[in-house]
Design goal:
The protein has 3 helices and no strands. It is mostly helical. The protein has a single domain, classed as Helix Hairpins (Orthogonal Bundle). It is elongated. Belongs to the universal ribosomal protein uL29 family.
């Protein structure tokens, strides 16, 4: 998932995506703790996707706040 794809989504869609990514991260951590995780790079990718979604949400919130100010 790249940032350009995220910019086209609404804040509600982004929050839903964030929730699903957090669930996925939890499941990956659980699988790693039980030594069932084959590809540990998945954890890194999910963590970075969470950061991307949070960044875009914050950018959209800041833009909305700026438009209401002016």
């Amino acid at each position: 998932m790249d940032a350009t794809e995220l910019h086209s989504k609404t804040p509600d869609e982004l929050r839903d995506r964030l929730a699903s990514l957090k669930k996925e991260a939890f499941n990956l951590r659980f699988r790693q703790a039980t030594n069932q995780l084959d590809n540990t790079a998945q954890m890194r990718n999910v963590r970075r996707d969470v950061a991307r979604v949070k960044t875009v949400l914050n950018q959209k919130a800041a833009a909305a706040a700026k438009t209401t100010e002016a």
